[in-house]
Amino acid sequence: MAVAVGSEREAASRWLMADLLEWHQREARPEWFVHYEQIEKYDEQNFIESGDCLGGLRLVGPVGTIDKSTIWRFKFPADQDHKFAEGDTVHDPHPAHDKVFAKAQADKAKYPSAKELGEILALDDTNGTIDVAIKDKQGRPTATAFVRGEPIPDKVMREALQRLARSLLDTSRSSHDATHRAAIALLRREPPRFRDGNSLNPSSGEAASSRFIRLAAELDGSYLIVQGPPGSGKTWALARAVLRCVAAGQLVGLSGFKHETMKAMIAGIREALADPEIGRSLGIDPDAVKIIRKLRSGGEPETDITGLVTETDDNAKVDAALTTRSHQIAAGTAWLFSREKMPQLDVVFIDEAGQMSLANALAIATSAKNVVLVGDPQQLAQPGKGAHPLLPPPADEWYPYGSSASALEHVLAGRATVPEDEGVFLDVTFRLHPEIRDFISAAMYDGRLASADHCRNRAISLANGKRETGIRWCPVEHTGNKTSSSEEVAVIAKIVRQFKGATLTTKEGRTRPIEVAKDIMIVTPYNSQANDLRRAMPKLRIGTIDKFQGLEAPVVIVSMVASTSEDIPRGLDFLYSTNRLNVAVSRAKTLCIVVGSPSLLAARCNSVRQMQLVNVLCKYVEMAGTWT
Q: pLDDT grade, residue 491 (50/70/90)?
């Protein structure tokens, strides 16, 4: 007897839900392993060499005060490849190390934790200095290494998934009456549902961004996927979609992978409210819109003189603001929205959903009647650490990535772009010159991405009169380079000098002299190379690909660094990542120059997947002109 498609989907979704229930445990396991190893076994060299630590610290002294804390400056070897950033909290592993090996602690059950010191206020990789705000009661710091401390407790998300699983198993209700309808629809990858006859079919002449704005407020116990390629106005449209929901009387949530994501969403809403047309078109008073933002625990609230945003580190204050409707919008991470006590929202927007795990997205979705997932799985992916099982047949045909997927990967199921009948693809970039767009669209977006007409106006004229637009390849011969390349630094410095006396034509068609410090951005996969480049060209914008997502410049120069595929320290999948190449190249408005060893085009591949990755770089070189 043939099995109904609905039954197959339901059975597969239960397999997936079962795996998701243990996702957080599997994800945290390697973090705990590293945490214990750092405390027990790491020596000074281990701390320097590990990307999860910052080693070789030397205390310089106090450089200021803030509240009841002293700002202490430390010096460190500047060539370290680390993952710390301003705003992170650092811990000292050595007190815990001493306790582990102290006889007095031998019979104690609780394993000692690294000592929390404080927040990073400033980090200078070029000069190797880091400033940390440390409470005065801790006294003078003695740390010679920084670590991240224990993994953040995830109990609230695990409990949210357990509630979702119980709802999924509840056969006493129809799917229309089920608790957590939107979360279940997302889990099962059901087609989106809308009220009042609305559908994903565009109105006559309706732009994709307008369709997003219109449909977000019309969801009916469902979810909406919005894929936003580079420069497609994702944040602009998201802000207006949020305000349309507010105008419809809905309570709205804003969430994302990190706090910086919420800040960007709020900035977009603030900018939208400054547009007089928004209030008129939506029929809302901009001054009446209020946002409450949940800070990390212990965070210091800032006063917003405009009155738009209220900040708090107290969940109860967020709950009260929503219950009394003194605020229509709440912003926070998964730890806020996954709570059982969270007041039910009408809709929650999850930005950068390509970096949000499906497990956490579903936990957030339990707080709302509807969910809008915004992002792009073709850009930087979720930073997963655990090993997660694939589903057994035939469930794997429905959900090929299983519980390891990001929220957007789960819905797209291996496809590069979201189909028109499953979501909204923002199909126009307002950033990329058509010649850059040609590569990005063909290699990353199934040829569906177009450039706005004004992008064609962008151009650069060098001092010798040569006009430059699009993508270029600059081959540099070298051997033995892994995370830094002096040869590429020298070539890039020469390229930058070639822009002396050059002019830039903007999207409006206006021409002005190029400002090297403002108009040229240099990106590279490795901190070591970024530091070398900064020392050679201290006035330019230089950094790693991860830190420049969301930014843009008329000219982008990409340094590939490694001499061959065998020299790549993190493996071929890191350097040849199509997500990273997409982010790097798409920072450029007018011209992108990739500098690299020609031997990278003849990589040794051990799988079909690796062949696909290398092929994208080869495609870039094939489509690019040669920079001389």
A: very high
Output the pLDDT for position 301. 84
Distance CA 553, CA 516 (A): 10
For 83: left if phi > 0, alpha if psi spans -120 to 50, otherwise beta; the answer is: alpha
Burial (Cβ within 10 Å: 0-12, 13-18, ≥19) of residue 274: exposed
User: What pLDDT score does 177 carry?
Assistant: 55
Rounded to 5 degrees, what angle do the CA atoms 389, 392, 398 make? 100
**Residues 6+ away with beta carbon under 8 Å from 193:** 185, 219, 220, 221, 222
Helices (H), 21-115: 23-40, 44-49, 94-100
pLDDT at 443 over 90: yes
Cβ atoms of 241 and 316 within 8 Å: the answer is no
Distance CA 162, CA 178 (A): 15
DSSP letters spanning 286-316 = GGG--EEEEPPTT------TTSSEEEES-HH
The answer, yes or no, to whether residue 29 has pLDDT greater than 80, is yes
Structure confidence at residue 175 as a pLDDT band (50, 70, 90): low
Rg (CA), the chain: 25
Helix (H, G, I), strand (E, B) or coil at 35: helix
Burial class (CB in 10 A: 0-12, 13-18, 19+), 153: exposed
Q: Which structure tokens are listed for 40?
A: 């027990």
Burial call 542-558: b when 16+ CB within 10 Å, e when fewer: bbbbeebbbeebbbbbb
Contact 24, 334 (CB under 8 A): no
- Kindly write down the DSSP assignment for every residue of 465-488, as one continuous string: S-EE-EEEEEE---SS-SS--HHH
Whole-number Å distance between alpha carbons of 616 and 444: 9
What is the per-residue pLDDT across 336-348, written as a single tens digit (0 to 9) for each? 999 999 999 999 9
Decide if pLDDT at 107 tops 60. Answer: no
pLDDT for the residue 386 = 84
Task: Provide the b/e sequence for 8-40 (b: ≥16 CB within 10 Å).
Answer: ebeebbebbbebbbbbbebbbeebeebbeebbe
Q: What is the Cβ-side half-sphere exposure of residue 352, based on CA atoms within 13 angstroms?
A: 20
3-state secondary structure of 115: strand
Q: What is the pLDDT of residue 1?
A: 29
Cα of 74 vs its chain's centroid, Å: 28
Give the dihedral sign, CA 561/564/566/571: positive
Q: Which of 550, 434, 533, 548 is nearest to 484 (CA)?
A: 533
Q: Which of these, 396, 412, 359, 414, lies nearest to 8 by C-alpha position?
A: 396
Confidence of residue 445 (pLDDT cuts 50, 70, 90): very high
Nearest to 375 by CA among 357, 361, 355: 355
What is the percentage of the chain residues whose pLDDT exceeds 90?
76
Q: 216 Cβ partners below 8 Å, 6+ apart? A: 224, 241, 242, 244, 245, 347, 349, 372
